[in-house]
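Narrative of accomplishments. A recurring question from our advisory board has been how the design workflow behaves on a single, concrete structure rather than in aggregate. To address it, we present the structure tokens for one chain from the evaluation set, followed by the sequence designed for it. No filtering or post-editing was applied between the two.
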């Protein structure tokens, strides 16, 4: 699981120890969903207090925002290199 997938899963599940009721397949491969489900059922989870949960969700939001910005920069770069002969030489 990459950091972006992990952040999406954390934001979706939050403090709920019953991960089976969430549609993780919308952004995770089936094999990863199975690993998450088995790990969650075999682990003694501990619920975070509200302040800690909000800090974790905020961190996930920052990571997802950063990932979106990186994707945008890469897209703009690729578009620019196709239309700019100077950048094509790099």
């Amino acid at each position: 699981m990459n950091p972006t997938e992990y952040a999406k899963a954390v934001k979706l599940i939050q403090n709920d120890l019953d991960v089976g009721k969430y549609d993780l397949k919308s952004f995770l491969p089936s094999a990863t969903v199975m690993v998450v489900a088995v790990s969650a059922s075999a682990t003694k989870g501990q619920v975070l207090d509200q302040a800690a949960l909000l800090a974790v969700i905020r961190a996930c939001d920052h990571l997802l925002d950063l990932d979106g910005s990186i994707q945008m920069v890469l897209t703009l770069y690729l578009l620019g290199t196709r239309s700019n002969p100077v950048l094509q030489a790099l």
